[in-house]
Amino acid sequence: MQEHVPDRDDGRDLVRMEVSRLPGRQREIVILVHGDRFPLVDAAGYFGIRPTTARTRYQRARDVPDCGTVSGVASSAVGN
């Protein structure tokens, strides 16, 4: 009997597709926070923006209609 091996992708393609649909500034923040594991404060410094601006862009990325996957991913880092 052959054991079922879960798909190694684990939904990452769907997440990439959803993130690619975000407006540029929101996409940049999500990629830096999740892809590169930057705290939001450090992402703000990287882009030369205030931390509150970074948080606003990140929150807006969560609120984009039809991007439920991004909302789930983004919700874990809003407090950073």
Number of domains: 1
What is the element string, with H for helices and E for strands? Answer: HHHHH
Spatial gap, N to C terminus: 46 Å
Structural class: mainly alpha
Strand fraction? under 5%
Number of helices: 5
Kindly report the CATH topology.
Answer: Arc Repressor Mutant, subunit A
Shape: globular
Care to count the β-strands? 0
- Percent helix range: 55-70%
Kindly report the average pLDDT value.
Answer: 80
CATH architecture field: Orthogonal Bundle
**Top-tier CATH class:** Mainly Alpha
Low-confidence stretches: 75-80
Radius of gyration over alpha carbons? 14 Å
Sheet of most strands? none
Quick structural gist:
With 80 residues, the chain is mostly helical.
What key phrases describe this protein's structure?
80 residues, mainly alpha, Arc Repressor Mutant, subunit A, 5 helices, 0% strand, disordered C terminus
